[in-house]
Amino acid sequence: MIFSIQSTFAKKFGLLKTLPQHFQTLVSVQRYIQIRHDSSQTPFNEDEIRKFGRNFRSGEIYAPHDLNEENYKDKKPLRFRKPPPNVDVFKRLNLNPLVEYKNFNLLSNFVSDMGRILPRKKTGLTAKNQRKLAKAIKRARSFGLIPSTYRRQIELDFFPGYRGGGFDNRS
Length: 171
Hints:
Keywords: Ribonucleoprotein, Ribosomal protein
Number of domains: 3
GO molecular function: small ribosomal subunit rRNA binding; structural constituent of ribosome
Family: Belongs to the bacterial ribosomal protein bS18 family.
Order of helices and strands: HHHHHHH
Strand content: under 5%
Protein name: Small ribosomal subunit protein bS18m
InterPro entries: Ribosomal_bS18, Ribosomal_bS18_sf
C-alpha cells in the first residue's frame, strides 16, 4: 500500500528519479491521504446512530456529553410513524365519491367519532378523491343523511331477525 501510493504520486509529479529526496514528502502525503480516508468514514453504523436520542445534522452545534452513550441508555428508542396505506379504496373499486353521497354506511367510515372528516393520512385516499369525499360528506350532511356532530353507527335494530350473533331463522 505504501509503495503503491508513493509510486503513483511519484509518477504523477515526475519524482521517480528523485524518490529518496522526496521520501519525507511522500510519507506526509500518505498520512494525509490516510487521515482523509479515515475521516470520511463514519465510526458508527446505522444501529449505533439510532440508539442516540436525537439525530445530529451537519453543521449542528452539540456538547461533548451529547455523544456519551450513557445519557441515552434509559431513554426509549425513537418511534417511527407507520406510513398510511397506499390503497385508494375508491380508485381500487372504480367508484366516484361524489356519486356515493347517498351511501351513509360508506361515508361514515371516513368520519371521526366527533363527526369530523378524517384526514388524508388516515384515509389513504388520493388528494383528488379526498376532495371529492369531503364534498360528498358535506352534501350528505346538507341533505340530512348523516349527522354533522357525531359518527353514525349502523343501527342493528333496523334489520329484522338480527339478535347479535347472526340471523335467526326460527321466527
